[in-house]
Specification:
0% strand; 516 residues; mainly alpha
Length: 516
């Protein structure tokens, strides 16, 4: 019976199951799986349910195989802390202000618990992955499947004009071919940037930066035609996706990868210099230099600058005049302050270039006209800075709630989602989870990064290897992308794969302690 168990459930089976599970992640991130009708049908997104079940099976197999039961006591302690936090997090969430006439921004316990479980999944994967040293061949197969599924889909749907726009829910109107035409087919980045049929471009961008770093490591170890094609496919996918993180992230990684390669060739002298590989790096960098000026990412930056520049000073003066008139009317009729404010905002918010979704749906101006009028008085660059407004809305709700415990337990993820997801990870988690939630559920990524850096610096001769360098670079840039673009650490398509590679780096640095 014991032999049968070892045949069915063993280390190799867990490794294969883990790799297959990760290969399936892009398929679980198609946009239709997150549509309201589909989510309402299942109660939650079916992709999240599948991920929970899949990782649950992997955890069960791991428990059956793992012989080191002593380390479970630390997991039990951590689990108890999370449960205690979740209880107080919920109790604090119930103490919400009545400032909004009974509206609590749709908080519910089940949705919040489901979110906390989602945040725990990648952390459990870090722990499991750290116990297995997955060889480069299996990693290469994983990367090949991920790149073909993601970048292959982006390229094909872009050329066939069937892709969803990265910045809209509409089908794109032009392909990469339009980039090189003088008039760009009279289309903006809004109609050109493509995300295939995937859900969130920010998450894709962060994931692709992580994958890029690991793929360059595989390329240097094995500079085959296949691996070079994968890099070119990554280049096209990241540029067509059109976000700043994907475009500039790939460019920075290409340059850094080339520098690291030369460092290990001529300084550490652990690699043999390859003229062909050097030429390939130069070709990739030249292609990037050629594509960046015509890419949707740069077009977006220029468009945003032009929109601000084109807003004539005379228009701004006129709006200030209107605002002054409103203030004078309120002084003359203080009893009518609220109705005057509401009428003014409704009439002029479009002239102020305010995002309708923010002012009407996310944080309705009828609830807090003082807040929106204060924003209207700010410069145009501030009024059109979405991340700035997103944080101000959350800050205002927290301020109006006037509960000191929100600093420690947050105002909940569900509430933030019903207002607007702040596109700035770590800061958004401060508002949703509070300081204690940040420490328990988010800080492990930062703490482990610092630990890895210290471990490498303390023992450079042994730990400063090509693999460790590229894995750490991928991990670091993915976390930087999370802070810059947001909505990353809440997306399992990123965090599960990130958790896997963090575990692999941990295994590489502390193999003797982690092997089972």
């Amino acid at each position: 019976m014991a032999k049968l168990k070892e045949t069915i459930i063993n280390k190799q089976i867990i490794e294969k199951t883990l790799i297959i599970f990760l290969m399936l992640q892009p398929l679980l991130d198609f946009a239709f799986l997150f549509k309201e009708k589909v989510v309402n049908l299942f109660g939650f997104s079916p992709s999240t349910i599948i991920r929970i079940l899949g990782l649950g099976i992997i955890c069960l197999l791991f428990i059956l195989v793992n012989k080191n039961k002593k380390e479970y006591k630390y997991l039990i302690i951590y689990g108890i802390l999370v449960i205690i936090y979740a209880v107080f997090h919920h109790l604090n969430a119930l103490k919400f202000t009545d400032y909004y006439n009974g509206y609590d921004f749709g908080y519910n316990l089940i949705g919040e618990l489901f979110y906390i479980i989602r945040m725990l999944l990648p952390l459990s994967l870090i722990y499991i992955s750290a116990h297995y040293n997955i060889d480069d061949k299996k990693i290469a197969k994983l990367l090949t499947v991920l790149i073909i599924l993601i970048c292959g889909s982006i390229l094909i749907t872009n050329l066939t004009l069937t892709s969803i726009g990265s910045y809209s829910k509409q089908t794109i109107k032009g392909s990469i071919i339009c980039w090189f035409k003088t008039d760009r087919c009279n289309l903006s980045y809004f109609e050109l940037a493509s995300k295939a049929f995937f859900n969130d471009p920010n998450r894709l961008a962060s994931l692709l930066t992580l994958i890029t770093s690991i793929t360059y490591y595989i390329l240097i170890k094995n500079p085959s035609i296949k691996n070079k094609i994968l890099i070119i496919l990554l280049l096209l996918g990241t540029f067509i996706l059109g976000t700043k993180v994907s475009t500039y992230g790939f460019t920075i990684l290409s340059l850094f990868s080339f520098i690291i390669y030369l460092f290990f060739c001529f300084v550490k002298k652990e690699l043999k210099f390859s003229k062909n590989l050097c030429i390939f790096f130069v070709i990739v960098l030249l292609l990037e230099a050629f594509l960046i000026p015509v890419s949707p990412a740069l077009n977006r930056t220029e468009t945003e600058k032009n929109n601000i520049a084109n807003f004539e000073k005379e228009e701004e003066k006129l709006l200030k005049k209107h605002m002054k008139q409103l203030e004078e009317e309120i002084k003359a009729n203080p009893k009518d302050k609220y109705s005057l404010q509401i009428a003014y905002i409704k009439k002029y918010y479009e002239d102020y270039h305010m995002n309708p979704q923010f002012i009407i749906d996310s944080y309705p101006y009828e609830y807090d006209p003082d807040f929106w009028l204060a924003i209207m008085k700010k410069p145009l660059a501030k009024r059109t800075d979405f991340r700035y407004i997103e944080e101000l809305m959350l800050k205002r709700v927290k301020e109006k709630n006037n509960n000191k415990m929100d600093n420690y337990f947050g105002i909940t993820f569900v509430r933030m989602g019903n207002i607007f997801d702040l596109e700035r990870d770590f800061i958004s988690h401060y508002y949703t989870l509070g300081i204690l939630g940040l420490i328990l559920l988010v800080s492990p990524y930062i703490i482990l990064t610092l630990i890895f850096i210290i471990s490498i610096l303390k023992n450079i001769k042994t730990n400063l290897t090509l693999k460790n360098t590229f894995y750490l670079m991928g991990m670091g840039i993915a976390l930087c992308a999370a802070f810059y673009s947001g909505n990353v650490l809440d997306g399992l398509i990123v965090t599960l794969i990130l958790g896997f590679f963090i575990g692999q780096l941990m295994n590489s640095l502390y193999a003797k302690e982690k092997e089972v």
